[in-house]
Amino acid sequence: MAEMTNLLVKDDTTGTRIELTFVPVTDTPKPLWRAQLAGVPFEGQPTIELSEEVLKSGDRKTTMMLDVPVMETLGTAGTSAGYQAAPAVAYHEKTFYTRISSKRSTISDRANALAIGVGLLQGATSTTATGTLDQASAADAFKSSAAPMPVAFIAGSFPF
């Protein structure tokens, strides 16, 4: 079984792209990664979690959850009494990607569905065709990928 590794993702919510390094936290019971952003408290760090279950039908359900906490903007002035609140999470922005695969599906079936989903998620439109990734080779790239998310959604098991 492969070892969990760091995941590097770019965040472009600001003018300057931020590189988020998600570091493995645990692989049991669910694989979990946590970002390590400088100056952001522990509870404000984004996380990625994978879960997997076999349904009564025998089909396999795999879910990736990205949780991005949004911090309060408190300012530095404080109150007239000199109190300044500690940084706090205002809310969580969560994204889920769930795949349910028939026990009869093949790696090619799952890679094709992932390629279509990624194409849609990356902005496929009538003017940009399939988005920013070269979809002609994406399914083959996903099938041969050793990266944790494609493997989890295509191979039907966690790679670690």
Characterize the structure shown.
The protein is α+β, with helices and mostly antiparallel strands and 160 residues long. It has one domain: MS2 Viral Coat Protein, CATH 3.30.380.10. It is built from 3 helices and 6 strands, in the order E-E-E-E-E-E-H-H-H. It has a 6-stranded antiparallel sheet with strand order 1-2-3-4-5-6, with helices on one face. The radius of gyration is 19 Å and the shape is elongated. 14% of the residues are buried.
Helix-strand pattern: EEEEEEHHH
**Class, according to the CATH hierarchy?**
Alpha Beta
Euclidean distance between termini CA atoms:
5 Å
Q: Do you know the CATH architecture? A: 2-Layer Sandwich
Average pLDDT value?
Answer: 81
Strand content: 25-35%
Extended strand count:
6
Main sheet: strand order: 1-2-3-4-5-6
Q: CATH fold name, please?
A: MS2 Viral Coat Protein
